[in-house]
Amino acid sequence: MDEKNHYSISELASMLEISPSTIRFYEEKKLIDPERTSGNQRIYTRKDRARLKLILRGKRFGFSLDEIAEIIGLADVEVNEVSQIEKSLAYTDKRIAEIRARRSELDLLETDMIAMKDNLVKRLEEISAGQNEV
Fold this sequence. Notes:
The protein has helices spanning 9-16, 20-28, 46-60, 65-71, 81-133; strands at residues 6-7, 35-36, 42-45.
């Protein structure tokens, strides 16, 4: 495990397997706020790394950047752990409901596709049987 306290943008990008431009994008969106050197180079802390990991996990789970900002406490100045957990639970419940709805739609689509395939196979067999009779 890496125990460094500070990272360059290229080190952090490599660690998280993302591009430096992705990190800059999240900075532009105010999701992270790296320190700067006297030469204005970005320096990322372990806190920035942890926050980026949360952002990437949120994106992987399908949350919007606004939702991620709320979950990690950027949208509310008076955020506390309880409110972060409550927001996370609410967004997670919403995503689970969306996933379940999508799964139901996919199940219906699969059923329809199987029925169509069965009808096409049956029709092909009928046509083939009719050609063999001639």
